[in-house]
Write a structure and sequence with these properties.
The complex is a heterodimer of chains A (about 240) and B (about 500).
Chain A lengths: L1 E10 L2 E11 L4 E5 L6 H9 L6 E6 L2 E2 L5 H5 L2 E5 L10 H11 L4 H15 L15 H13 L5 E5 L7 H18 L2 E5 L3 H7 L2 E6 L2 E6 L1 H6 L4 H11 L2
Chain B lengths: L1 H16 L5 E4 L4 H16 L4 E4 L5 H9 L5 E5 H8 L10 H10 L2 E10 L2 E6 H7 L14 E5 H5 L4 H8 L5 E5 L1 H10 L4 E5 L4 H5 L1 E4 L10 E7 L4 H8 L7 H12 L5 H11 L12 H36 L1 H16 L2 H12 L3 H25 L3 H10 L3 H31 L12 H10 L2 H29 L6
Parallel strand pairs in B: 1-2, 6-7, 6-8
Antiparallel strand pairs in B: 3-10, 4-10, 5-8, 5-9
Helix pairs in contact in B: 1-17, 2-13, 14-15, 14-17, 14-19, 15-17, 16-17, 17-19, 19-21, 20-21
Classes of the chains: A alpha/beta (about 240), B alpha/beta (about 500).
């Protein structure tokens, strides 16, 4: 589905990402985790084309995405960030339908699609006509998810999607998100700094440190067969009471 | 963009191109010049010519340039100004009219016969103070280095003004500051100033009881009044004007000045009375009512502000967008419009006259240039200030550049852009009053005339509407800002 091959990023002398290979299988949910500054967001932004790698290629369905290919590629990706990144001057509905309108969808088709997405993310219908400033954090993230899913993308990219929410709402939404991922069968790449969240959401966890992938596997893999002493330290920090 | 600018310039140039027919008379921004302008208009009309008078255009340099560029056909001038100021550096004998004629001819200008009086510079003090300090000549001032002197701005600057007086009479120890000629009399009267420069035909000399100090060293040159005309002016018009030669002596000029300045008689009527005395019958039009004046100046002022502001919005918003898109270009653009803002408004107006002539076009262009900075800067900062996550969200959605600008960036920057337009509008309303100095009309005109005639009510006729208009602009744009700001941003 998506393949990163020798992708590296540096900003001046600062190396944000060492040459990295990563493959996402169709329908697989991959959680990127690591301490802050480890390069997990940079990696996600490379996939989105928001950061241009110094080396390496990003390939979608086997075809490398060239400079001219991003416009088309982005229509096949949905993107959610912390706090949603919703446009404050548009209503929730305006945010969700923006791209479909730009692509010239019929009004009925847009309304039907929004209706089904609203059911999927369990958003009360009156919330659709509010501006982001008048919505709760949880509602904002639901709308951001609707916006990302609007064009039915093959790949869903989430950067700390629940990072700004209360712990209780957060736990609920983790469960809901996981259910949505399973329902839709999308290929998902989610960035989080929370190991519990990574384990709940992801089929597998990719642990980064200093711009390098340290280990890939499930939480039990990381716990029982740590690749380096760092993995043990990282996991035990979460296991500690 | 370039085409747009050219279009704007072309539209602005239209009015000046359409008026070729009547003989155009100009005058400087002091009463005597305005009266002489009216006298010339009367003489021309009596000679069968259409004539129009652009009053109170500004200083010598503005009139001289307007004459040479063909914006006006004639204006009253003084031989001393011609010699010391306008022809300074030209070779040949400048001291006589005959000596000057070939030089003037080469410049496309012709000097008519002296009108019959001198209006030279002089330095004066109130009689009681002069008596107390025993000051009789300019040189006596050196004995009183603590005296405060105030001179008209032009006198301060001119080579044959204060610099020469100071040098010749050794007055280096005395402090002098520049101010408006008409305000100087009031300063003198109120005791704020000990001495000021005068014109020897000023009506105020007798009125305020001023002692004219003797110029023992002969610093001030001959300032014989005459009309300067374009060399290509119709000879019959010249003949009509030449009938004025030698007809006005100094005492008559003082009387005419007093009629206008102290009795508050409109200059056109003063001129008509004089012409009647010398046997030239002129019809004086109905004097303009205060309401008529208010309507006319409001219309002119609004036109100046609206056209310049609209053009500025059309140019500045795209410039601000370009500046936000390309940081290096942005630095250049912001620096350039910033530099324009530092040019003193009067200097900018005068600089534009050789290119655009006198009247509304240079004023509109100057206001347009001043309006750019607030709008460009606010458009730029409004766009640059949009949080990165929002921009990246728009990119990630797949919105192309143009749609992103239209649907996301401009709406988010709109409050900042409108605040910039509001700032420009308010500055514009105030600055537009200076347009009167170059014949653009507007609220500056009654202010200018009011200062010249010491008529506070006339000054208020310009100042109050200008202040009200500024407040309306502020309030109107604030309301527009509220109405247009997207709901989610309030």
């Amino acid at each position: 589905m998506l393949e990163l091959c020798g992708v590296s990023v540096s900003f001046g002398t600062l190396v944000a990402l060492q040459p990295t290979d990563l493959t996402l299988e169709p329908g697989q949910v991959t959680a990127l985790i690591g301490p802050s500054g480890c390069g997990k967001s940079t990696l996600l932004r490379c996939v989105m084309g928001l950061v241009t790698p110094n080396t390496g290629t990003v390939a979608l369905d086997g075809a490398p995405i060239g400079a001219a290919g991003w416009a088309a590629a982005r229509l096949r990706m949905g993107y959610v960030i912390q706090e949603g990144g919703l446009f404050p001057h548009l209503t929730a509905r305006g945010n969700v339908s923006l791209m479909a309108e730009h692509l010239g969808w019929e009004a009925d088709r847009i309304a039907d699609r929004i209706d089904s997405l609203r059911g999927l993310v369990q958003l009360p219908s009156e919330a659709l006509d509010r501006h982001p400033g008048a919505l709760s954090g949880g509602q904002r993230q639901r709308i951001a998810l609707m916006r990302a899913l609007m064009l039915d993308p093959a790949l869903l990219l989430l950067d700390e999607p629940l990072g700004a929410l209360d712990p209780m709402i957060r736990a609920d939404l983790q469960r809901e998100l996981r259910a949505i991922f399973t329902d839709l069968g999308k290929t998902v790449l989610v960035v989080t700094h929370d190991l519990t969240e990574a384990a709940r959401l992801g089929d597998r966890i990719v642990l980064l440190r200093d711009g390098d992938i340290v280990q890939t596997g499930t939480l039990p893999d990381l716990r029982e067969r740590p690749a380096t002493p760092f993995v043990t330290r990282f996991v035990s920090a979460w296991d500690a009471p | 963009m370039k085409a747009l600018l050219l279009l704007v310039m072309a539209v602005l140039a239209l009015p000046s191109a359409a008026t070729a027919e009547p003989v155009r008379v100009g005058s400087k921004k002091f009463t005597e010049s305005v009266i002489l302008g009216e006298v010339a208009v009367g003489a021309l009309r009596d000679g069968g010519f259409e004539a129009e008078h652009t009053r109170e255009l500004g200083g010598s340099r503005i009139l001289w340039n307007a004459l040479r560029s063909g914006e006006i056909d004639l204006y009253p001038e003084y031989s001393g100004t011609l010699v010391q100021e306008l022809l300074d550096g030209e070779p040949g004998d400048l001291s006589t009219a005959a000596g000057r004629q070939p030089i003037l001819k080469r410049l496309g200008v012709r000097e008519l016969s002296s009108l019959g009086f001198q209006n030279t510079y002089a330095v004066g003090m109130l009689e009681p103070l002069a008596k107390k300090l025993a000051v009789r000549s300019i040189g006596d001032l050196a004995r009183h280095p603590d005296l405060r002197l105030g001179f008209s701005n032009e006198f301060m600057e001119r080579e044959d003004g204060w610099p020469k007086v100071r040098r010749v009479y050794g007055l280096d120890a005395l402090a002098a500051r520049g101010l408006d000629h008409d305000l100087a009399y009031r300063g003198l009267h109120a005791g704020n100033l000990a001495a000021t420069d005068l014109y020897s035909t000023d009506a105020e000399i007798a009125f305020y009881g001023i002692r004219v100090l003797t110029d023992d060293a002969g610093v001030f040159p001959e300032y014989s009044a005459m009309l300067l005309v374009r060399d290509d002016l119709d000879p019959r018009a010249v003949a009509a004007l030449e009938r004025l030669g030698g007809r006005i002596d100094r005492s008559r000029m003082v009387a005419l000045n007093a009629r206008a300045k102290l009795d508050r008689t409109p200059e056109a009527q003063v001129a008509a009375e004089f012409l009647g005395e010398v046997g030239v019958d002129v019809e004086t039009g109905q004097a303009e009512s205060r309401l008529g004046l208010l309507v006319r100046t409001t219309r002119d002022h609004l036109a100046l502000v609206a056209i310049s502001l609209l053009a500025a919005i059309l140019v500045a918003v795209p410039l601000g967008i370009a500046a936000a898109r390309r940081p290096r270009l942005g630095a250049v653009v912001l620096a350039a419009v910033g530099v324009v803002q530092t040019i003193p408004s009067l200097a900018l107006l005068v600089m534009l006259i050789p290119v655009l002539g006198i009247g509304a076009p240079p004023a509109i262009v100057a206001l347009f240039l001043y309006s750019l900075l607030p709008i460009v800067r606010n458009t730029h900062s409004g766009l640059v200030g949009i949080p990165t996550p929002l921009i990246e969200s728009a990119i990630a959605l797949g919105l192309p550049d143009s749609a992103r600008l239209r649907r996301i960036e401009l709406p988010l920057a709109l409050p900042a852009i409108l605040a910039g337009v509001k700032t420009s509008a308010v500055i514009n309303v105030g600055t537009a009053t200076l347009g009167a100095l170059i014949g653009a009309g507007g609220y500056g005109q009654p202010i200018l005339t009011g200062i010249r005639l010491d008529d506070v009510s006339l000054i208020l006729m310009g100042a109050v509407p200008a202040a009200v208009l500024a407040l309306l602009a502020e309030g109107g744009f604030a309301a527009l800002e509220r109405a247009l700001t997207p709901k989610g941003l309030r």
